[in-house]
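step 4 of 6: structure.
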Amino acid sequence: MAGSKRPSGGILVFLLAVALALAACARPLGPGPLEAGVAAAQDDRWEEAVRFWEQAVARDPASAAAHNNLAVAFEKRGAFDEAGREYEAALRLDPSNPAIRDNYRAFKARVEAGRGRRP
Amino acid sequence: MRTRAAILLAALLAAVAACASTSPVDVRLSIPASSPFAPGSLTAILVTDFHDQAPLPDFETGRALGDQLEAELARAAKGQVGRVGRARVPAVAGRDDPAAWKAAGEGEAPGTVFLAGTVSLTARILKAVDKTQPDDGPFDLAGRALVSKRRWTFAADVRVISAATGEALYQRTFLEERDYIELDKPAEFAFHELSERVRTKLYQALLGTASLETRTLLRR
């Protein structure tokens, strides 16, 4: 009978492959605030990027990426205290992430080099 | 069998493409550089007249430098320093006297600093072989004319002094020179040219200069 026909092996392999492809980089289908922020930053709209990343943190406070990106934006703004706090939050959440570690290392080197006096 | 391999390859490519769109992004940032002062710690800069160590008959170098610094710092420090103003404290200008500066800073808001120091603008005449004349060899100097040049030297010892404690928080000496063929070039002209170089360096030192750095943004 046609109704009891089992799917062919080719279709099964295809479905499995599609599932793998989607699972490989699990993320929402539309651009979330994290990616929208990156796009805004790449377009040099940093204030907008900050708003997106703040949304991303509000949605998922455990997002190391959102904290990292906020740290970068604060660093660019010259708000070094806030940048330090965000980098540290990102590192607590994902201590082995090489990008966050590199960012933080560069940030620390810069802050240490210019540690100034207070009048 | 061949079909299955093709499907798997296509799926692999799709997976790579999906992952690539979430890969980290390197960005080049212009990050404000650090100054000798902790970020946000300077709330007001009060510029004084600089003590003139070599007064000229026709030009007040110390006052002119103070005027320039006040006007330009107000623009250069915008957003970094709340207020740039003038402090008329000639009695202590240039003196390394913390008690006098502390007294002058009484009542000022926390984070206020004085920009003060000493300055001198001097000139001397130099004689040199006129190289614009035809060169007849190194031993034929007799036939070559000497030209006179006026060398202006601008020296400024700049100090940033805490209004709260009277201590010098930062000190740097600047020295700039330039030769002018026109011997009657007025002091004011030389001052503007030479002090511009000093001011540029001073603003970079005080307020920090932005530098380009690379950071990585994450997309997942």
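step 5 of 6: annotate
 - Residues 9-24 of chain A form the longest helix (16 residues).
 - Chain A has a mean pLDDT of 82.
step 6 of 6: archive
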